[in-house]
Design a protein that fits this description.
Chain lengths: ~90, ~90
C-alpha cells in the first residue's frame, strides 16, 4: 500500500517533516476508507437478514470471498488508473 | 502501512492524530450503524416505543454487524500481510 505514495527519504533526524507526516496520514486515511467501504459493501452483498445475532456459515464464507474480490478490484482499478496517468504524461 | 521510516517526533505527532481520527471513525460508524439498524428493523409506527420484535432485531443487527466487521478486519489484515510481504520480497 505504501508504494502508492513512494518513499519519504531518511528518517533518523529528530525533526518533524510536515510533508512526511501528511503522506503518512493520507495513507492511513486511504486504508481506513478502503476498509470502511469494504465493510459496507460486503454487508450489503452478504447479509440479508437480522433474524439472528450470529453470522451463518453461508454469510461467513460470502464475507471471506467478498473481501478477496474487493481487494482484487481495488488492485485492478488502481492499475488502470496508473496506466491512464502514464499515458497522459 | 509502514510508519518505521519516520522520526520519533513525527511518530508521536502522528500517533496523536491517528487516535483522534480513530475516534472520529468510531463515531461515524456508530451513526451509520444506528441508521442501518433503524431502517432495517423499525417499520411499525403504531407505538412510540420499540416492540420486543423490533428490539430483538436491533440487537441482532448490532451484534451481527460487529461480528461482520471483525471478520472483514481479520481477512483484510491477512490480505495486507500478504501484500506487504510480497512487496518486501520484490524490493529486497
Amino acid at each position: 500500500m505504501s508504494s502508492l505514495f513512494g518513499g519519504g527519504g531518511s528518517s533518523s533526524s529528530g525533526g518533524l517533516n510536515p510533508e512526511r507526516v501528511e503522506m503518512a496520514l493520507t495513507e492511513m486515511d486511504t486504508v481506513t476508507d478502503l476498509f470502511n467501504r469494504m465493510v459496507s459493501s460486503c454487508q450489503n452483498k452478504c447479509i440479508a437478514r437480522y433474524a439472528e445475532a450470529d453470522l451463518s456459515k453461508g454469510e461467513a464464507v460470502c464475507i471471506d470471498r467478498c473481501v478477496s474480490k474487493y481487494h482484487e478490484v481495488y488492485g485492478k482499478v488502481g492499475d488502470k488508473l496508473k496506466v491512464r496517468g502514464e499515458q497522459k504524461s | 502501512m509502514d510508519f518505521t521510516g519516520l522520526s520519533n517526533a513525527e511518530q508521536a505527532h502522528i500517533n496523536k492524530l491517528v487516535e483522534k481520527r480513530q475516534f472520529q471513525g468510531f463515531l461515524t460508524m456508530y451513526g451509520k450503524l444506528v441508521e442501518k439498524c433503524f431502517n432495517t428493523c423499525c417499520n411499525d409506527f403504531t407505538s412510540k416505543s420499540l416492540s420486543s420484535k423490533e428490539e430483538q432485531c436491533v440487537n441482532n443487527c448490532a451484534e451481527k454487524f460487529m461480528k461482520h466487521s471483525e471478520r472483514v478486519s481479520a481477512r483484510f489484515a491477512e490480505m495486507n500481510a500478504e501484500i506487504m510481504s510480497g512487496q518486501k520480497n520484490m524490493s529486497g
